[in-house]
Specification:
The protein has 6 helices and 6 strands; from the N terminus they run H-E-E-H-H-H-E-E-H-E-E-H. It has 201 residues and is mainly α. The longest helix has 21 residues. Bound molecules: zinc ion (ZN).
């Protein structure tokens, strides 16, 4: 196992913001479990698209907005990113890498530097649809994270019935839960388990 401190720490670059966006889109739109209960995204396409646009705007201001017409493709992308991020959280690179390459193979990249500072390498331009742009951008950013060892910072929640993913920015790399709610649920569960064992004696 390689120590996290020895790797390139994510720096808040455009590339790193794309990975954060992939994590946030996943947690918002991928079905599964969250905080102890089954999780599903909104069934209202307009609501889904508005929430996804709000999330992405947080990470990249000049984005092309998702439209209601592409909501099914947006949800499919979120499911693919979720599967992939879980593989990366499990450090299962042989499974994750073909999935990243599949994301990159669907659409052409249009690599270019921003035309003014802050200089950032962009993977797609504004001629692509939002789903296409984010798929290429997130795929390329995750590929770059794999090649620099930064995927060690991607974790999955360890609480029962939660499969949300998060970026572990703690210095020690020991964050275990997606939220304080899951952390508290786990504390209660561990306490009850200890009590049950005590009572059984
Ligand atoms: Zn959780």
């Amino acid at each position: 196992m390689v120590l996290k401190g020895m790797m390139t720490r994510p720096s808040g670059s455009h590339r790193d913001q794309l990975v954060m966006a992939a994590i946030s889109l996943t947690n918002l739109l991928a079905p599964g479990f969250s905080n102890g209960v089954p999780y599903a995204p909104s069934e209202d396409p307009a609501e889904t698209v508005a929430a996804a646009n709000a999330v992405c705007e947080h990470f990249y201001r000049k984005q092309v907005a998702f439209t209601v017409a592409e909501v099914d493709r947006l949800l499919a992308l979120a499911r693919r990113l979720h599967e992939l991020l879980l593989d990366l959280a499990d450090d299962d690179l042989p499974t994750a890498v073909p999935k990243i390459n599949a994301l990159l193979a669907d659409f052409p990249a249009r690599l270019h530097l921003s035309s003014e500072p802050p200089w950032a390498l962009h993977y797609q331009d504004h001629s692509a649809s939002a789903v296409e742009g984010w798929q290429v951008g997130c795929g390329a950013a995750l590929a770059s994270w794999v090649s620099s060892g930064a995927t060690q910072y991607i974790s999955r929640c360890e609480a029962v019935r939660c499969d949300r993913v998060f970026f572990d920015d703690t210095r020690s790399g020991t964050r275990r839960f997606c939220s304080s709610r899951c952390q508290n649920r786990d504390k209660v569960r561990a306490y009850r388990l200890r009590q049950a064992i005590k009572d059984a004696r």
